[in-house]
Write a structure and sequence with these properties.
heterodimer, A: 2 domains, B: alpha+beta, Dipeptide-binding Protein, domain 1, Dipeptide-binding Protein, domain 3, 14 helices, 19 strands, globular
């Protein structure tokens, strides 16, 4: 197992390095932040002083060297916009995104397992057709449209929920629902597909012939085997959610990492952008590792390969 | 190969799995509560304002940044004097009066009995310190770059209530410039920025939940009339339709920075927001170096149609960059009439004289500079094509666009028209002319010695002579230079809940005085 982990960690180091390099250099190709941060009427001397103070007048490689040296000391630099440590801004935003992503994924996965299994139990039955129709509608609904409609219907017209914000439990309903709808739709289809396959396997017949109850057949035998493809897709969806639910964060005023990243790109706030991308990349790396471990746990074929 | 008969692998005993799940849920939910409980419920004595963005800082020396200024100015901190948007006159704030004692010296008499939120008295030492801190401390104050440029200014406390301010060159509008300097106590850090300042204003900072909301509380020791609301709660939503919806659903009393499409309906209040939209004509390159082509561009744009359709009526066609109320505004300059026949004949005339009018001209646009920015440029493009020019539109994001806005300009750009918007929040044409029309102005791609001379003469003048000279410089630009195609004096929209009254003015976009918001009825 340790060898497996070590191998996975080493193979992830390269993409991580590429991300760090890419973000650093690509961000700096997009123009001089002095133009954005100084008033239009600022003098040339002021612009030069600004560049010198933030090190933007050094050659790019020198700037990159300084950045790596800072990183080694766990110093992520200072936000140009707020003059606060970049790490502070990122660590404030990330939990908000993680909470939203976590709850969304749990609800989507739990709902998808139930609906997908029911649909797969009797393929082409009315229940299956309804589930298929609803899940494809859900999977193809644009989230910004759903969010704005949600605000208009449930906040403005019916006055059941707040429009936006993070204050109070009711404020979670619309953001989670918006974020949930696509992963739920996709996962229902994946679970259904995997369950239909699993339920037609010989071992299900064997289980039934040995007198196992239907609940046991579905949840114990079939679902476990349908777990691997579901896990793969859910992992992919989780990566998308952790990357920041930009639309949801923007519309609902959710102070998360997606909005922070987009803002720091638009405002050329390099330190915040770099810190946010690094933290997100590390989290996605950890998540992928977790998914791999889950594979090992649920699928003995993978386990044998991993332990070999 | 997996045997189908092999029993499924268990991750752990069912009990332990349930515990893990329960813990995961508990972590997420308690974490959720940390976010959820960090706001505070607002009562009837709290005015709730929803902004398009969180203030990056509340540092008073950055108060010329819109996002900072509209929260800080005259709410948390105050200047010595304040400009009245309707008249353009300065009115006393923390200074009761000021006098020019020599061409380079002004004396300000300070108000007595003013205290900062920390209880200390406001004295001339604080005033001199605030001016020094804004101009000379090396902390890159936005106000310094915006208002003072390279002018050298010294402030000295003469006695407890008198400050002497000296400029190296005679400066007839020094008090106006100083109206951008917010007063802070000498205990404020001089060598670094502060995020949460102490001021003398009617409200003090109560609690800033970063990312979520900002609460101000009424300052009981305020020297002036106490404002109506005991507290103000600022929140921010980037999406305009959500800000408008917050008024409809009763979650906010005032929503700032809306567009016509945001759907504020009956709650919407329109106001002239001090901004003027225009196209900068980069007149140093053919065919734009020919004044007939520049005039044709002005004739070929249907400004009335543009305002009525694309801007949804939010604006009025304009002929100059400064609106009424700004020193230098010239009431005789009218918007260029829409006259396609004239435009076509001017282009034909230029073509006959060998001007390469078939050269492709690029409109450099900026997404989001005002609502429907791209559509507006398509309307302009259509007009110019009809007149006989070859025009393409390139829409950029703000940073790429500033490369074209500010010197040094891209060298290989070809002939360009730049979509721009100018807001003169200081109220004097000096803050427009030099940088936009001067031959060496930071935003100017073309100027003439005649216009430069007129601008410089106006900048040295004071009082009614200053008004006349700037008005004359603007007329000269409009008739003889034609360096741009001014489109419209723009209007903004805010939305108000039925339970508040507030009358927005041209300064509301930059400073929104909480004391001017009242409960309705």
């Amino acid at each position: 197992m340790l060898t497996f982990l070590r191998r996975r960690i080493l193979s992830s180091a390269v993409p991580l390095l590429v991300v760090v390099l890419g973000v650093f250099f690509l961000a700096r190709l997009t123009g001089d932040p002095a133009n954005l941060y100084l008033p239009l009427s600022a003098t040339q001397e002021m612009r030069e002083a600004f560049s010198a103070q933030h090190g933007f007048d050094d050659p790019l490689l020198v700037q990159f060297g300084d950045y790596l040296a800072q990183l080694a000391r766990l110093d992520f630099g200072e936000s140009l916009r707020t003059a606060q440590p970049a790490a502070e801004a990122v660590l404030r935003a990330f939990p908000a995104t993680l909470q939203l992503a976590g709850i969304t994924l749990l609800l989507a996965a739990a709902g998808a397992v139930v609906v997908g299994s029911l649909a797969a139990y009797r393929p082409n039955s009315p229940a299956d057709r309804i589930a298929g129709f609803l899940s494809s509608t859900a999977a193809s609904t644009p989230d910004f449209w759903f969010a704005i409609m949600g605000v208009l219907i449930f906040a403005v017209t019916l006055d059941w929920l707040p429009t936006s914000g993070t204050v109070g439990a009711a404020a979670w309903v619309l953001p989670v629902a918006t974020l949930l709808i696509r992963p739920f739709g996709v996962l229902v289809q994946v679970v259904r597909g995997a369950m239909v396959t699993a339920l037609s396997e010989p071992y299900i017949k064997v289980a039934r012939s040995k007198g196992a109850g239907e609940r046991r057949v579905i949840f114990k035998h079939a679902l476990r085997n349908a777990g691997a493809p579901t896990l793969t897709v859910a992992g992919d969806l989780a990566v998308g959610l952790i990357n920041g639910a930009v639309v949801v964060e923007t519309i609902f005023g959710w102070p998360g990492i997606g909005k922070l990243m987009i803002d720091s790109i638009l405002q050329r706030d390099f330190a915040v952008l770099q810190a946010a991308v690094l933290l997100t990349a590390l989290t996605i790396f950890a998540l992928n590792l977790l998914i791999d471990i889950c594979y090992v746990l649920i699928d003995p074929r993978v386990r044998q390969g991993a332990l070999a | 190969m997996k045997s189908p008969l092999r029993p499924p692998v268990a991750i752990g005993p069912p009990g332990r799995r349930a515990t893990v799940l329960a813990v995961a849920w508990a972590v997420l939910l308690t974490g959720g509560c940390t976010v959820a409980n960090s706001g505070s419920a607002a009562g009837a004595d709290t005015v709730q304002i929803v902004l398009p963005e969180e203030p990056p800082t509340l540092e008073p020396c950055d108060a010329s940044l819109t996002a900072t200024g509209r929260v800080v100015r005259s709410n948390i901190t105050e200047p010595l004097a304040e400009r009245v948007p309707e008249t353009g006159e300065l009115e006393p704030k923390l200074a009761t009066g000021w006098k020019q004692t020599s061409p380079t010296t002004w004396k300000f008499t300070l108000r007595k009995g003013v205290t900062f939120h920390d209880g200390t008295a406001f004295t001339a030492k604080d005033a001199a310190f605030s001016i020094d801190r804004t101009l000379d401390s090396g902390i890159e104050c936005n106000v310094d770059g915006y208002v003072f440029g390279d002018s050298e200014i010294t402030a000295t406390a003469v006695d407890a209530t008198t400050v002497r301010v000296t400029s190296q060159e005679p400066d007839p509008i020094l008090p106006l410039r100083l109206s951008f300097v917010e007063m802070v106590p000498t205990s404020t850090k001089a060598d670094s920025r502060v995020r949460e300042p102490v001021g003398t204003g009617p409200y003090r900072i109560d609690k800033w939940n970063q990312g979520i909301n900002l609460r101000l509380a009424r300052y009981d020791g305020y020297w002036g009339k106490a404002p109506d609301y005991r507290a103000a709660l600022y929140t921010w939503r980037a999406e305009g339709s959500v800000r408008a919806a917050m008024i409809s659903s009763g979650e906010a009393d005032v929503a700032v920075g809306l567009a016509p499409a945001d759907g504020a309906g009956d709650h919407a209040v329109e106001y002239p927001n001090n901004e003027t939209s225009y196209l900068r004509i980069d007149a140093d390159k053919p065919p734009l170096d020919d004044i007939r082509v520049r005039k044709a561009i002005n004739y070929a744009i249907d400004k009335k149609g543009l305002v009525a359709s694309v801007f949804a009526g939010l604006g009025r066609p304009a002929g100059q960059l400064v609106p009424d109320g700004v020193t230098g505004y010239n009431p005789d300059i009218k918007a260029w009439p829409y006259d396609m026949k004239r435009a076509k004949s001017l282009i034909a005339e230029a073509r006959a004289d060998g001007v390469p009018v078939e050269t492709e001209i690029t409109i450099i646009g900026r997404n989001g500079i005002y609502p429907k920015a791209a559509e507006a440029m398509e309307v302009v493009q259509k007009g110019l094509r009809d007149a006989g020019l070859r025009v393409e539109v390139k829409m950029l994001d703000v940073n790429a666009w500033t490369e074209y806005l500010l010197r040094p300009f891209p060298k290989d750009a070809g002939p360009t028209l730049l979509q721009a918007q100018h807001g003169n929040q200081a109220g004097d044409a000096a803050f427009t002319m030099e940088q936009i029309y001067g031959s060496k102005g930071a935003q100017s791609s073309y100027g003439t010695p005649g216009l430069d001379q007129r601008i410089q003469r106006a900048e040295r003048a004071a009082g009614s002579e200053r008004q006349t000279r700037f008005a004359e410089a603007l007329a000269h630009q409009s008739e003889k230079v034609v360096r741009d195609a001014v489109l419209a004096h723009m209007k903004g929209i805010i939305a108000l809940a039925p339970d508040v009254t507030y009358k927005p003015d041209s300064a509301s976009g930059d400073e929104m005085h909480l004391a001017e918001i009242h409960p309705a009825g």
